[in-house]
Structures are given as C-alpha cells and as structure tokens.
Design brief:
There is one protein chain. The chain has 376 residues and is of the alpha/beta class. It folds into two domains: 229 residues, Aspartate Aminotransferase, domain 2, CATH 3.40.640.10; 124 residues, Aspartate Aminotransferase, domain 1, CATH 3.90.1150.10. The chain contains eleven helices and 14 strands. The strands form five sheets. It has a four-stranded mixed β-sheet with strand order 1-9-8-5. A hairpin with a 2-residue loop joins β10 and β11.
Length: 376
C-alpha cells in the first residue's frame, strides 16, 4: 500500500523562525539591559523612541506598555473626557473602543468600506454632535483608511483625529506614513504584529511638542518632576527589555514588510480564479499586510477543511464591537452596521509571515484549490 503524501503544516505565523534569525543579537541586547539594571524605560527605550520616530517620519515617539495604553493616553491628549463621544468603527479589535471607554466617553460607530474594511468616510459627518471630541479611524489589517476626506472633516469641524495604527507599521497613504496624518498615531507592538516585542508594548507618535511632553508625563504617573503629580496619571511605561528587542527588530522591518508584500501579491495572483473574496489593496496606499483576510459565506467550513490539511487560519474579527455584550448599553442592534457584520460572518485569515517559504505558501494555495470549488 502506498502511503499518502505528507502534507506541509503551515502555521498562521511563525515567531520561532524570526527568533532563530535574531537570537544572538537579541540575547546580547537583553543581557545589556540586565547588566545595566535599566529595567523600566532607560537608554534602550530612548534609543528605540528616536529610531522609530525617524522611521515613521514623526517628530516624537513616546513608548508605552501596550497599544491600548497608547490609544488611551492619546485620546486624553486630544481632550476626550467623561461624557464626550468619539467616532470610530465596529470592525476592529476591541481595544480601540476600550480606550474611548477608559476616558469615560462613548464610542459612536460608523460602518466600514466593503472593500478595505476601514472607516467609510462618507458616513462620518452625519454622526458628529456637540459631544464629538475625536475621530478614531483604524488602519485595519495593514492598509490605511481613506484619510483625505477624514482629515477634511477633522479640519472643518475642529475635531482632533487620532490614528489607530496598531496593525499598520510602515504603511502609507498617498506617500504619507500611517500615524503621521492626524494629531497622533498609536501603535501596538504585541508579539504577532509586523514589529512585535517579546511581550506587551506600544507607542504614540506625534509632531506636537506639548502633546509629546504630556504623554511622557501621563505614562509615568503624571510626573514632570519626581513626586509632583499635576493630574491623574498612569503606569504606562515601556520596560527596558522591550525597548531592546524593538530596537533590534526595527532594523529588519522594511525587509520583513517587503517580504509580506511579495507574499500577499502572490496570493492575490494564485487565488484570483477561486470562489473566494480576496482582500482589496488600494493603489494610493502602501498595504503592509499584517493580515491577509479573505471572505467566504461558508467560512467555518472552509477553515475546518483547511485545518484537516494542516493549514492554520485565524479570525479577525468575527463579532463586530456593537454586538459585543460589553457594549450592549450603546443600544445598537444586529443590522445596524451591515458591512461590518458581513465581514464578521465571512472573514478568515490565511497564513502570511515574512519567513514563510514558497513550499508553505504553495501548500496553502493547493489546499484552497481542493476546498473552495467543493464548497462553492
């Protein structure tokens, strides 16, 4: 009896492969932090802040302990407080809305564009009220939102715009880096991100000197001077080990991004004739492909069949925020944001990571060629 050919196992991402490439340099830098005992903030974090600001094209980078903290602090600096409203989207990770809630404000949602899954700018203006204190678009999956009309609304109404760039390190919109177009840009360096730490970490970039200074105070218990606290502050400091890791990995980010782009373009080419809705990349934007999210009306069956064939997939994001129990009090119902809801029902994320081999990508494509025609 002839044995069936061994299938290639393909993970959604492979952080071990990335670590193997950087192990010696990473461990040496971590040892420097340990020997210096600069465990909280310190020179490694300061060096990363300088380098990431330069990479992003921003005047300031303020490192914090998570992307959620970055959003929270940035909204405070935008003037958001209890009783206010912030316009955002329901198709994102829930941390986007957590930050609004942490300020005591209310998330007000608009639906997303059906192609890019980012904020539909045409829907924003009708949601503005006297309570609206900020706009919070999300650059989802690695592609910037349509920023020109959003910035126009921001300017005309005098409402600050804060960018959620948690998934879009190095992305660009009409030549401008994501995170540099609004009042500030908020990044997550969660391990699975395009630029990921070895734990929790985040940052805010801005060109505003006063905002940068306030962010530095807020992250350190609101101290401008030791033991002097002029407002309510937070313990949002980045630790030295994360600064060390990020400083090393930042040097590789462009190469990793180019690898992601090449893999994504290959997927778009090889899967174009299959019965599946592929992600749309706008020509005026640099999509950095944090996630390659396709859609299919029988998504759960597709995922189950791929899993049988050794292909791991993900979900980003199956339940839009307006349908989450935590936000039932906002009064939204099923059907209020039909585009987000359809994406939630149909989305599934294919493996894509810089170290992905041709053999691994071929295995994904071949599995989809087997599965999709049978499901229709």
């Amino acid at each position: 009896m002839i044995a069936a050919p061994r299938r290639v196992q393909v993970p959604l991402a492979d952080l071990k492969a990335q670590y193997a490439l950087l192990k010696d340099e990473i461990l040496a830098s971590l040892a420097e932090v340990a020997e210096s005992t600069a465990y909280v903030l310190g020179p490694k974090v300061a060096a990363f802040e300088k380098d990431f600001a330069a990479y992003s094209g921003a005047k300031h980078c303020v490192a914090v302990n998570s992307g959620t903290s970055a959003l929270h602090a940035a909204l405070i600096c935008a003037g958001v407080a209890a009783g206010d409203e912030v316009i955002s989207v329901p198709m994102t990770f829930i941390a986007t809305s957590w930050a609004i809630s942490y300020c005591g404000a209310t998330p007000v949602y608009v639906d997303v564009d059906p192609d890019t899954a980012t904020m539909d700018a045409a829907l924003v203006e009708k949601k503005i009220t006297r309570k609206t204190k900020a706009l919070l678009p999300v650059h989802l999956y690695g592609q910037p939102a349509d920023m020109e009309p959003l910035l126009d609304v921001s300017r005309r109404h005098g409402i600050p715009l804060v960018e959620d760039v948690a998934q879009a390190h190095g992305a660009a919109y009409r030549g401008r880096k994501a995170g540099t177009m609004g009042q500030s840009g908020c990044f997550s360096f969660y391990p699975g991100k395009n630029l990921g730490a070895y734990g929790e970490a985040g940052a805010v970039i801005t060109d505003d000197d006063a905002i940068a200074a306030r962010l530095r105070r807020l992250r350190d218990h609101a101290q401008a001077q030791r033991y002097h606290h002029d407002e309510i502050g937070f313990n949002y400091r980045m630790d030295g080990f994360q600064g060390a890791v990020l400083g090393i990995k930042l040097k590789h980010l462009e190469a990793w991004t180019n690898a992601r782009i090449e893999l994504a373009e290959k997927y778009l080419e090889l899967l174009s004739d299959l019965p599946v809705e592929l992600p749309v990349r706008r020509d005026d934007r640099r999509h950095v492909w944090h996630l390659f999210v396709a859609r299919h009306p029988r998504r759960d069956e597709v995922r189950a069949e791929l899993e049988k064939r050794g292909i791991q997939t993900g979900l980003h994001y199956p339940i839009p925020l307006h349908l989450q129990k935590a936000y039932q009090h906002l009064g939204y119902n099923a059907g209020d944001f039909p585009v987000s809801e359809r994406i939630g029902r149909e989305c599934f994320t294919l493996p894509l990571f810089p170290e992905m081999t041709g053999e691994q990508q071929s295995a994904v494509v071949e599995a989809l060629e087997e599965v999709l025609p049978a499901l229709g």
